[in-house]
Amino acid sequence: MFLIIIDALLAAVFEIVLEFVLGIVGEFLLEYGLDKLGEKISSRSGIYELLVIIGHGFFGVVLGIGSTYIYSDTVIEDQALKIANFIVMPLIFGFSTCLVSWLLERSTTDRRIFQFSEFVAGVVFGITYIAARALTHM
Known about the structure:
- The protein is mainly alpha-helical.
- 81% of the residues lie in helices and 0% in strands.
- It has 4 helices and no strands.
- The protein has helices at 2-40, 46-70, 79-105, 116-136.
- α1 (2-40) packs antiparallel against α2 (46-70), α1 runs parallel beside α3 and α3 crosses α4 (116-136).
- The chain is elongated.
């Protein structure tokens, strides 16, 4: 009985860590691409920020559906843990987007780590990523 609980707990932790790592790698690639696009467009205009949010949402859906083919089994079966995952992971993705953007731009500009528009884009990415995974499991 004890080993079954430990096995389920480790599987849930593995799923959460794998989702997080896959999301961070995806966000890094997206931010790098958007950074290159920002060189062509004024990087602080309203159009650029809208494109960033739409791009994060679209990429979240694509990566969420794609990740279902990498690991299709849902380990978290408890409804409360699923809700907690849906709330916490987008916030983590929001903060990680700010961090990745800061790391990419820190050599060229002197800027703060937290940028609200980048945080919102990361949250949009997280929500669409998790929603796409959830909808492909139905």
